[in-house]
Amino acid sequence: MPTQGSGEPDYDHLLRANLERVFNERDAVRRLAAIDEIFVDDPVMYEPSKVVNGREAISEIAGALLEQFGPTFRFTPNAPAVGHHGFGVLRWRAGPDEHTVAVTGSDAAEFVDGRIARLWVLLDPPAG
User: Fold this and answer.
1) Per-position DSSP letters for 61-89, written without gaps between them
2) 121 in helix, strand or coil?
3) Statement: residue 4 has pLDDT above 80
4) Tens of pLDDT along 47-59?
5) How confident is the model at residue 97 (pLDDT cuts 50, 70, 90)?
6) What structural domains does the chain harbor?
7) What residues form DSSP beta bridges with 51?
8) Quick check: 58 and 45 in contact, CB under 8 A?
């Protein structure tokens, strides 16, 4: 796994890879291969409404999300991720195209041995 000069994981690289290669990946085989690379053997993902355990379950959630919102829906990072001491955060936006934002939020992750062990999906309140 990529690390920074300090021995810390490369938070930006790994959290962007999670966004692009997992949550934007429509091909289930490629998505699961990315999860195997990015996540520990038995990861946990905390969504606002449930807790998801394991790589296959995370892949299923990502696939269902993409299917639910249509073929052009995608997640885009807002800025580089930040992190230290095994914890990183990436702010993102998502929508059907680059000009329409349907939701914004952050992924916060705990890293173990350079891979994501626990991932919290935090959704911003709706604007208005």
Assistant:
1) HHHHHHHHH-TT-EEEESS--EEETTEEE
2) strand
3) no
4) 999 999 999 999 9
5) confident
6) 11-123 (3.10.450.50)
7) 46
8) yes
